[in-house]
Amino acid sequence: MNDTAEAEGLPPPARRHRPVRPRDAASLIVLRGEGRDLELLAGRRPLHLRFMPGVYVFPGGAIDAADRRPWAVETEAPNLTPRLFACARAALRETWEETGVLIAAPRTGPASVPPHLPIEKAYAERGLAAAFDRLAYVGRAITPSRVFRRFNTRFFLCDASLVVGEPRSNDEFEDVAWHPIGRRPLDPFRDVSQFMLARAIAMREGRADPDAPLFCTVGQSRCIRVCREALLSA
Length: 234
What we know:
The protein is an alpha+beta fold. The chain has five helices and twelve strands. It is globular and about 50 Å long.
């Protein structure tokens, strides 16, 4: 396989007739400021990674089994279905693991059970709760079937006023910072990220379509459909 194909995530020829089942994942879009002062919390995937090397992305990743169970320190979010709640947990956990910041609100009472997971302990030690009630569902995207690593990703939006901590880079996420996207675009930045960012900004400004989108591929063409998951959680 040539370097270009690998960078795009294309599978070897022998596997191209067997589409990979997409794995559930989640990403968090965190914004602060407005206009030319608008900034986005994002980082760059290192060049040594096989999937999307050198590309700027929102913090996020695949859903773990532990994300499907309630945390000891979390706010209620009745607008989220159990599946979307698991995705939201993954988005906040991955954001903490990749950038070092928590998306939090003051805790109003003791933890429901003793904190067990590292992310739960991070909140509990600071007297905070994971602010799921302050997240907005942006939309969903499914990686094309021709790609060797596929994700069924749900995107959430939150404001920087919920951020606790200072962003930091690590071995798996480089150039982690508040990037001034109001002055210059991130590059390289994939089309699905551009699409979800544009919708998140529109939501923040009160001009977004009320129906959450599903960004997917039909045949060889990208298309935008209405996300039925979001309708179920409305």
